[in-house]
């Protein structure tokens, strides 16, 4: 009996050494979670059951559990490295075989899919053709590296203040080359269907108390006919409180524009043009087109107060073509692509999975786990949703192994091994004594 007890102790100490050695070996493995050997005692039992003081029969390995406490966050220089601060696992797919990991070594393969260092594809919510996230549809995340196509300007919104103290210019008629023929001006860029930039310039001429004319040139030319330098124009009237009079604007008779019932101004006849190399240059259509529905200009929030002319807000939705300049991933897992044209586009969203019993996950190597019956079904969601942790881009989660603890465990396991070996040695000596009896 003592031989078996000592032998079980040797086996237990060996397994403890193996587990501790594995922890030490993976102290530098990102996303690794340390294990712990858990032992239980064994008692001998007879056919009729045990007595009130049963004799011990050794030790057995109860379980090797993993400790999923948080590892330190280590910042790297790779924007696609990801660390989870809190609960959850990355979901990866190897040709449809799903596994879960805390190691955030991610990059892109030759097809643009986000993969880890073993080529497993990271899972998340993808986007449709318009860049809208497809929530609930988990698939392989893919980074679109192609150039972003240009977009023709469809909407131009402005908020400006015209100085009510200005007087009517004495120089008439309006001449864009003569600043004395207008009171104020401002410019912004708009784009045609090929991504060509054009300068949209507005000249404001006071015509009387609370009344102004807004003259518009594009590239210094008439929007409808690039061979002309005469502007398109619309009259703006303000109330005694300094607000734009929308009913008066709707009832006006603009030149080259139309005014909708809500007070927005529409430019639907613009012909994009470009000059040639002659001197003076000759302007002609450049082969591109304006937005098919025209350009909607919204100046309804503009005012006329006794302060200097200022443009408080301007925005337009057109842009030229752009090349991928960089990627950013926020703490909710949303992947933003930045382009050289100043635009950004959502490329997808990383999802995380959590389990009712993470101890029940089955380790399969490569710092990965798979679902088991004991773990339960995965609960998939976006980072920071519910109990799921936040993502940190450009960082990795270090192993949670504490080397000082593991080295102490080595000493303890070694002593246990020596003590059990001594038990066998003593039993052997006693047995030898009995054999030597005469």
From TrEMBL:
Signal peptide residues on this chain, from the entry's feature table: none
Domain Flagellar hook protein FlgE D2, chain residue ranges per copy: 161-319
Protein known as: Flagellar hook protein FlgE
Intracellular or extracellular location(s): Bacterial flagellum basal body
NCBIfam families: FlgEFG_subfam, PRK05682.1-1
Keywords annotated in UniProt: Bacterial flagellum, Cell projection, Cilium, Flagellum
Any GO BP annotation: bacterial-type flagellum-dependent swarming motility
InterPro entries to which the protein is assigned, alphabetical: Falgellar_hook_FlgE_sf, Flag_bb_rod_N, Flagellar_FlgE/F/G, Flg_bb/hook_C_dom, FlgE/F/G-like, FlgE_D2, LlgE_F_G-like_D1
Principal location: other
Function: A flexible structure which links the flagellar filament to the drive apparatus in the basal body.
Stretches assigned to the Flagellar hook protein FlgE/F/G-like D1 domain: 83-130
SUPFAM superfamilies, per database record: Flagellar hook protein flgE (SSF117143)
């Amino acid at each position: 009996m003592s031989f078996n007890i000592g032998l079980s102790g040797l086996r237990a100490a060996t397994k403890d050494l193996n587990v501790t050695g594995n922890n030490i070996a993976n102290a530098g493995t990102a996303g690794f979670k340390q294990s712990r050997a858990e032992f239980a005692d064994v008692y001998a039992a007879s056919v009729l059951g045990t007595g009130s003081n049963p004799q011990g029969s050794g030790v057995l390995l109860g379980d090797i559990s993993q400790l999923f406490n948080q590892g330190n966050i280590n910042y790297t220089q790779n924007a696609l490295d990801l660390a989870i601060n809190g609960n959850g696992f990355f979901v990866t797919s190897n040709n449809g075989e799903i596994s879960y990991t805390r190691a955030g070594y991610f990059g892109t393969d030759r097809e643009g899919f986000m993969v880890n260092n073993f080529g497993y594809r990271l899972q998340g919510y993808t986007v449709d053709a318009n860049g809208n996230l497809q929530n609930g549809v988990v698939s392989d995340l893919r980074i679109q590296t192609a150039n972003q196509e240009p977009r023709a300007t469809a909407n131009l919104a402005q908020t400006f203040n015209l100085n009510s103290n200005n007087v009517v210019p004495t120089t008439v008629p309006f001449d864009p080359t003569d600043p004395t023929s207008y009171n104020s001006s401002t410019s912004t860029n708009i784009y045609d269907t090929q991504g060509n930039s054009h300068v949209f310039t507005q000249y404001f001429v006071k015509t009387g108390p609370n009344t102004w004319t807004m003259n518009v040139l594009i590239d210094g030319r008439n929007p409808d006919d690039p061979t002309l330098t005469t502007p398109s124009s619309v009259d703006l009237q303000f109330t005694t409180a300094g607000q734009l009079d929308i009913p008066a604007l709707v009832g006006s008779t603009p030149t080259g524009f139309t005014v909708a019932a809500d007070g927005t101004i529409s430019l639907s006849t613009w012909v994009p043009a470009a000059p040639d190399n002659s001197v003076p240059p000759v302007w002609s259509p450049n082969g591109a087109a304006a937005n098919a529905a025209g350009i909607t200009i919204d100046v309804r929030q503009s005012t006329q107060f006794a302060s200097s002319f200022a443009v408080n807000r301007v925005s337009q939705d057109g842009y030229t073509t752009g090349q991928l300049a960089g990627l950013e991933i926020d703490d909710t897992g949303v992947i933003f692509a930045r382009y050289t044209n100043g635009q950004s586009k959502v490329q997808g969203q990383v999802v995380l999975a959590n389990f009712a019993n993470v101890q029940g996950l089955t380790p399969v190597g490569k710092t990965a786990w798979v679902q088991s019956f004991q773990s339960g079904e995965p609960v998939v969601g976006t980072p920071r949703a519910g109990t799921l942790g936040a993502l940190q881009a450009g960082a990795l989660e270090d192993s949670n192994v504490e080397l000082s603890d593991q080295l102490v465990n080595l000493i303890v396991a070694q002593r246990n091994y020596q003590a059990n070996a001594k038990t066998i040695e003593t039993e052997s000596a006693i047995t030898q004594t009995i054999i030597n009896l005469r």
